[in-house]
Design brief:
Layout lengths: L1 H9 L1 H13 L1 H16 L2 H13 L4 E7 L5 H13 L6 E7 L4 H13 L4 E4 L8 H9 L4 E4 L12 E5 L1 H16 L4 E7 L5 H14 L5 E8 L4 H14 L5 E4 L2 H14 L10 E6 L2 H8 L5 E4 L5 H12 L7 E4 L3 E3 L9 E2 L2 H5 L4
Parallel strand pairs: 1-2, 1-3, 3-4, 4-5, 5-11, 6-7, 6-8, 8-9, 9-10, 12-13
Antiparallel strand pairs: 10-12
The structure holds beta-D-fucofuranose (GYE).
Length: about 350
Amino acid sequence: MKRKLAVLLAGTMVMASLVGCGGSDAASTETAAPAEETAEEAPAEEAAEEAPAEEAAGDTIKVGFAQVGHESDWRAANTQNYQDTFSAANGYELSFVDADNDNAVQLEAVRTFIQQEMDYICIAPIETAGWDTVLQEAQDAGIPVLIVDRSVDADPSLYETQIGCDMVLEGETAGNWLAEYLNGEAANILVIEGTVGASATLGRTEGFNKVAAEHSEWTILDSQSGDFTQAGGQEVMESFIKSYSDFNVVVCQNDNEAYGAMDAMDAAGITYGVDGDVIIISYDATHDGLQYTLDGKINCNVECNPLQAEFAADVIQKLEAGEAIDPVTVVVDQAFVAPGITSQYATTMTQEVLDGRAY
Ligand code: GYE
């Protein structure tokens, strides 16, 4: 009881949003239940005593964002987008932590946000696993959590919502495009995966492998993590080149890995892209990745849109207003292919498409 009361006194504004939300949305009612119980159990006059002070300080919404790191161009664009959206001018105080791809640092950041009594916590989880305890701690503290970009394997009642791209679909799109492009030709495939245990890695791998399983003429020779970095992509590709002499497809699970893989192939005299021996598939479709696609160096680039902060802000504003929120928001992607390729799964790159890309 003592803990519950402390929770109530610490977050009048948060509690109000949860109660309001619970009243209007079935999915969120469940999520908000512990905080609502807290409200009901606490003596009304004690809550009233504390409320005015909390409300006076409550005009600015305090958001803690535990970001993965700064491993890629995608991540840089995503971070910038959060900083622009959750600005003081927009009524927010954003506390930003770059976890540098370290799970322990990310967990610690979330615990610090809980201690600091943030109004909301956004987590872009490095890995899917290991979140139950800290999410429970946030819920016990009455702080709504938004899982953003990647997903977690925790009980969904421990967080408000998940916002991100459909990584499995991205993998399927890459696979479907390859099948269409090869049209029955054999493929010896090397995969440079993203960070081990990340939903972006797991989903893209699952989706691609699902299509690969339908093609007995395809062989996945090897699949290693390049940790979503350019250096990682280069290192993995260099080791692939030492081990395999007969491959015609390299799948890079993000653009930065593709840049590293291209450097490694350049150094080894291996040609790639529309005029080369090796087909390159990449993910993200960031500006530079699309430049390489326009140049015909990357054959197919499956988009993952990093501009997701608006969706998070929308959820927070709805919770503040006591409105219903969606338990899941899928950020819609498309795929792009090099000039000269036409595909039912992707848009053929043009200078105009590239000029329209802000990140
Ligand atoms: O593809 C990669 C980044 O989680 C979707 O993380 C994101 C991935 C993105 O490092 O570039």
